[in-house]
Structures are given as C-alpha cells and as structure tokens.
Amino acid sequence: MTLRLTELLTAESGWKVVAAAFSEPHDPTMEANPSGPIDGATDAGPLTALLASPAQLQAALAKGTATSVFGTDRGEHAYGDAAARALVKTWSKLALAVEGKPREVHGKGWGFSLAYVNWLKKGDPYPSRMAGLVLGVPDDHGGWSVTAVIELSRPAGQAFAVTKPDGSWNVVLVQYTGQHWSDAGPMRATFAKDAVVLLPNGEQPAADADVASAIAFLNPHADVKAASFDHFTAGGNASMAWFAAELHFTVASSEPGYGVATEKHVVRAIELLDGAAGWKVAVAAFTNVGKLQQSGSSEIADATAPGPLVQLLASPPPLASALDANALVFGTDPDERGVGAGAKKLVGGWNKLQLALDTAQKAREVHTARYGYAMTNVTLGQPGKTKAMNAFVLALPGAAGAWTVIAASYGATF
Is the pLDDT assigned to residue 268 strictly greater than 90? Predict the structure, then answer.
C-alpha cells in the first residue's frame, strides 16, 4: 500500500498539525452523489481558486526544491519547482471545478485550503470526484506562493471524510505502523479509559487487554516479522471519527524443542474515536479472517441485554436495509468486503444463510446520544453442522429509534 501525506505545522499552534491530507493513489471515480459538507467550511478564497485552475496554480508554485505536488495517479508526484510545474502543466486541459464550500484558513505567514474538486470528462454523465489540499505562504505582492499540493481520489461508492483534525491518523500510525506488537503500551494508549474492544478471542475492556498481541496472534515465543494494512476507509463528523482497515501479519513462532513455524493472519479492524474522549478509541472490533469452525467461541465479558443492533447481526435483510449509503461490511472470507453499494450487495448475498444468534453466549449492546454498537456471537447453520462467528455492528441514531449502520464485521472464532 502506498500512502501520500502532506501536513502543515505552525508556530501559532505550538508546532502542531493544523491541516493534513493522506491519500492512496488511484484513478478518480465517476460518482453521481456529491460529497458531504466539509467540517468548518468557509467562503472560498484565493487558495481555493488555485485547486480548480492548473494555469494559475502553475504560476503560483514557489521556487525551490521543497515545493511538492501529488496527483491522484501513482506516477503523479513531483519534487522541486521545475518538476512541479511540469506536472501541473499536464492538467491544463482538465475541466475542473470546486464543489461546495471549502475550508480556507489564513494565518501569520501561512495558509491552506481544503476543498472538493470535480473533474467533468467529456461524455461522462457525472464528474469524477476528488479532494485537494493546497498549502501556501503570502508573497510580497499580496498573493500566495504555493509550497505543496495534494489531490485525493474519491473511492468508488464512498463519500470523502474531510474534517478538522481529530487525531484519527495519529491512532492509525501508532496502531498499524509501529514496531510494537510485543509491547501492549503504545496501542493501549490510543484507547479511551472506558473503551471496550472485540478481539478474535472475545470482548474485553481495552485497559485490561493486550490488544497488539491478540490481533497479531502472538504467544510468548512468537514475533511479528512483517505487518501491513490496506483497504483503509474512514468517515466522521465534528464529534467523532471512524475508520476500518485490513491488517496483514506474518508471525514466526519458535516453541522450545521445535523448529520455527511461520504463519500468516488477516484481521479486519473497525474503530470509533470519540471527540469527547480526547479523540481516543471508544470502541473497536478486530475480527479474524479464516475458515469457520464448529466449536469456536468469543466470550463477551461485559455483557448487556441484547437490543435492536444485536438482532441485525443475525438478520441480513434488515441489516442491508439499515446500511448507510457509504457503509462498510466485512465477512469472514478473504474476498468478503464491501463499501457503499458493494456492502449492500455483499449482505444481500447472505439472505439465504441460516444465521442465528448464539443464545448460549452473551452479547453487549451500547447506545449513546451520538452512536451505538453491538457485539455478539452468531451461528451459521449448515446441514449436519453449525459454524461459529463473532460479529460487530457500529451505527448512528436516527429518528423514532431507528439506526443507520456505518460498519459491520463478522469474524471466524476458534
């Protein structure tokens, strides 16, 4: 996986990040639905105009080796003003337009604009939707000198999540890219005090769990030799953020008296960060991708009475109906993942499965004013045998007690 990042730190903020963009390069996708509003939107200013005008952007690029431009394609990256101008020049014939209100902020000696940008291609009924971040410094003539530009593609079937900084990427970087898998401390620090987490082997308070070792399937004689993540998806609003990813581990285990055994594991993560908890993780689920077993179980330590969200996990038609337009769903098989229309199609394919709540085990369902979640055990009935799974759903409250599901996941237990 390739990630491109652009960040702006300012002295006014105590050298903290005031604007950032993270992108995975791929072709922009034609989409009928517009992107959602940008948190903290402002009126458009001179920096916003540059994002839809390659000619003006080219002229505004700052001189020097530090100037950088990222496009949406894998090969679109340039460092230094000469290469940056050459790249932007290739965009000169594109029909670009800013969509909706941006977030443009000017500070002492710095400025940025975050905006949605549409590219209307000839013959296409809808635009290819992107987002862009431009960073600049004021020049001596009342204009702006651009130091960095990054364009982001909108994944098919998804809305962009362009928000004020919420710390979610700090969590991602600590949890998924740190070399800490045998140390519980760094990951534990990303969770709120009362957070709970669903692991492949069951639910626990995050404060008591060694989450890093559990999701990497480590034992005292094992080490992570390689770790990566992909299929990253995120969303959020002014008070919370959520993201999902697929984690890949290569683990080497050396039991005394035996040779070294190497195993590969895939775990799917769904996490919600709560602004009221200092943008730490309030609830998370890490579900195992693997072959279903008959005897698997996933103990729910902090059980509650089951409610409507628990019921959705054993009922594909109601679950499909409750999915948000940009919802994400993970199944237990390697190819069972879907976003937006793909999630609805995936769940629709489960309509004939004999799913049932495992009544021999407990569930946990929590409702707050801003979100709700549930975790439980589900069985898949098959002739002569029953398979076991654990399951998780994350939802937003609606009118009259209704829930809109933003993410759901099923995992193989053991």
Answer: yes
